[in-house]
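Here is one chain, start to finish.
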Amino acid sequence: MMIKKVIFFLLIFVVTAFSQDGKNPNVELPDFVITGKDIVSVRRAEKMKPGFVGTVTKEFINPVFAPDELELALLSNPLEGDLSLLDSSDFYKGKFTLEAGKYTLPAGELNYAYPFTRGMIHGRMKGDNQRAYIDNSDKVYYEGALDIDYSLSTEENGLPGTKFTLNGKHGVSTYKFFGSDDPERERTLNAGNAYFGIKNLFLKEFIFDVNVAADYTYLDKENFDESLLKSNAFGRLQLDNFGLTIKSNYQKQFLTTDFLGKTISDYYFFRPSVSLELFDFIMADL
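Its structure:
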């Protein structure tokens, strides 16, 4: 038993000796060691709470304006275009443009509008001279147009608020068949249209819209001529419990060519309808 104790102490001595011999001489222990504890308190920072941001606010739906921030323009009737509101200092009555280029010399356009009480006259002239970029490719085009609009006052005794419209246009184009077997052949094409209409959507009991139009095309020095006449009519009579509506359309074509000679064809459409109000909440159309 004694021998075991001696061997045990010898092993402890050997292990301690080897551990002291193998330690790093560069490691130094501190001269003193601070021990103890302390309580450090950090004040909690208050976060700013974001306000509610809605996509649609009450101010957006019901905006509030001071009386001096509002500017109102009173019209006697919203259906009547009062052209007298136009001020010559706020818009241009006319416009003139002139263009020039390597193959366009010249090209120009002139517009002029003359407004008057409850009406306006507008005219336009346009021209384009295209020079030849290859042989016989030159082209000349010019046109003129005139528009007239006039409306009766809503205080007239007969058909108040009736609008009258008259306009027309005519254009001439001269060119050659530069890509054909006869490139020097020249053609002059004339095309235009005319329109006249009367419309009244102001009256409560009776409204109507009637117009007549014509489109035409013909060639100079050649037997080709085409004209298309068109007429449209719409009317509606509305009483307390009864309504009558009429729609109609008529077209007629005149065509003259070397192959067909003179031909005439037409087309018409007519549709009346009646509406009845039953039991104050049911409307029937026939």
